[in-house]
């Protein structure tokens, strides 16, 4: 090595220089590949018009005490239940220690009698049964998902079965005493 | 020979002209004509060729179905009904495609079973085996997305449940699911991309099949004895011997296929898929297509969401590392008295999983599925590694020729057998 002619001006440590150049080129290529790949990946995320379809108005006036209705929001069912005082009392009597995904009933409602939930099982996305009086309501007087057997209570909290989380509460606001806007 | 041209041995001047510029004919002749193949194949060696035929049938019928199919949530179901009722021979194309998927899986499952019994995954064929597992995974993705296209209730809810599997992963899970859907639920963007990918993936499969076969032609085929051919007395040319043997299997394949298509076209399907998709109502009992049931059973055997998903993916990932889990140098289980029993149980167990996967998530099925899942994993992770150390294999035959030509074996009976043939 030592007796090989070194071109004038080049550092003797050509190994380190080579490594640096290789590394810089690789890094640069990686950034370039990333920049090219990103638009493709991103194009698969929800488009702007899909995002724009994001809110639904619901009139609660016709829903009698003890009744439930299902409305569609973002392609998913939303459960709205007009709860009786007994429903509320039973949901509030449950100690948090018994819950898999602890949350108080109060934290899941804006007005005690109106429970609004996304009707999608947090296991693998089936629609739980329990909206109709004739449906099974599971072991906890709420909803029952027949797909793999998850039971939800009167506050939509997971009590038994493979689902890990409570039924989600969508963002909603009361636009008047008997109207809500979801989303 | 002119410089730069391949020296072709073909006599026909046109073939020769092409072949000397692009030696496709020479390649086909070498890989499928004279290719030296072990002389002792049994009918299990038909299934690779049958899988190839299945893939071609799926692509052919799929391309023609696409000419009348509409990938839109508002039209998809009706367009499939139109194919069934109004399009000339549309019913035939669709029934061949739908049952063809089942035939493809039957064939590929037997093909994989063959590889596991005769130890075809062992050195030097590890990469060949892994390419096979890649094909299997791509097939599952393709069939899953194809089943979504008719947009019936099972299409919709199958798609919902399977895409939701990814939500089990912490932090990124829900983003992955939204990304897969292109929205907030399985909807039109999902149907569109599934159609695009359903059209694309079979061609990707064709590409991997090419690599699979290229790798096969480097190592050569395994055989029922699992020992290497030691010379020309152990092999025969692929053509005409195995081309004819494969043809026999092909006839049987077409008979089974025809019985399905013409006499029981909906037997393997689910009647709920003739109900248009309804995002507001889940059918009470959703099941995937039969070929996914064993994995679905594993998923449901675990009471924990992430655990179930990991175990399900793990059950297939194990196939990738099978060559390193089974350290026994003896390939064919004919010579492995204990592994043979364990594998027979594994096979039975696979059918048990398939059965419970199709049943509701109730007792006794849940408990059965747990035991069956345990055995599935134990076979790969405990039994095979242990047997590789503990088992005493039977003595291997000296050579393929000796084993198949009887006790006297070897060159003498071969020469004797060859004589009358020469006269004829
Ligand atoms: C690996 C090969 C393939 C498999 C396993 C496969 C599987 C499937 C399955 C299971 C279905 C649902 C059938 C039903 O229940 O109606 C389907 C539908 C469909 N496939 Fe494929 N397919 C394959 C290749 C292709 C190719 C290459 C194309 C297009 C070039 C294609 C186009 C279609 C179309 C348009 C439908 C919707 C019509 C229908 O539902 O019958 N498929 N496929
Ligand atoms: S989707 Fe509800 S329990 Fe699995």
UniProtKB/TrEMBL annotation, chain A:
This is Ubiquinol-cytochrome c reductase iron-sulfur subunit. NCBIfam families: Rieske_proteo (TIGR01416), TAT_signal_seq (TIGR01409). It is found in: Cell membrane. It comes from Plastoroseomonas arctica. It is an enzyme of class 7 (translocase). Belongs to the Rieske iron-sulfur protein family. Its cofactor is [2Fe-2S] cluster. It catalyses: a quinol + 2 Fe(III)-[cytochrome c](out) = a quinone + 2 Fe(II)-[cytochrome c](out) + 2 H(+)(out). It comes from the Bacteria. It is a single-pass membrane protein. The main subunits of complex b-c1 are: cytochrome b, cytochrome c1 and the Rieske protein. GO terms for molecular function: 2 iron, 2 sulfur cluster binding; metal ion binding; quinol-cytochrome-c reductase activity. Residues 85-181 form the Rieske domain. Its EC number is 7.1.1.8. The Rieske protein is a high potential 2Fe-2S protein. PROSITE patterns: RIESKE, TAT. The chain crosses the membrane at residues 20-41. GO terms for cellular component: plasma membrane. Keywords: 2Fe-2S, Cell membrane, Disulfide bond, Electron transport, Iron, Iron-sulfur, Membrane, Metal-binding, Translocase, Transmembrane, Transmembrane helix, Transport. Component of the ubiquinol-cytochrome c reductase complex (complex III or cytochrome b-c1 complex), which is a respiratory chain that generates an electrochemical potential coupled to ATP synthesis. Binds 1 [2Fe-2S] cluster per subunit.
TrEMBL record, chain B:
GO terms for biological process: respiratory electron transport chain. The main subunits of complex b-c1 are: cytochrome b, cytochrome c1 and the Rieske protein. A ubiquinone binds at residue 217. It comes from the Bacteria. Component of the ubiquinol-cytochrome c reductase complex (complex III or cytochrome b-c1 complex), which is a respiratory chain that generates an electrochemical potential coupled to ATP synthesis. This is Cytochrome b. InterPro entries: Cyt_b/b6_C (IPR005798), Cyt_b/b6_C_sf (IPR036150), Cyt_b/b6_N (IPR005797), Cytb/b6-like_sf (IPR027387), Cytochrome_b (IPR030689), Cytochrome_b_C_euk/bac (IPR048260), Cytochrome_b_N_euk/bac (IPR048259), Di-haem_cyt_TM (IPR016174). Residues 228-398 form the Cytochrome b/b6 C-terminal region profile domain. The chain crosses the membrane at residues 43-71, 92-112, 127-149, 156-177, 197-218, 248-268, 306-325, 337-356, 368-388. CDD domains: cytochrome_b_C, Cytochrome_b_N. It comes from Plastoroseomonas arctica. Residues 14-225 form the Cytochrome b/b6 N-terminal region profile domain. It is found in: Membrane. It is a multi-pass membrane protein. Heme b b566 binds at residues 111, 212. GO terms for cellular component: respiratory chain complex III. One of its GO terms (molecular function) is metal ion binding. Its cofactor is heme b; heme. Binds 2 heme groups non-covalently. Heme b b562 binds at residues 97, 198. Belongs to the cytochrome b family.
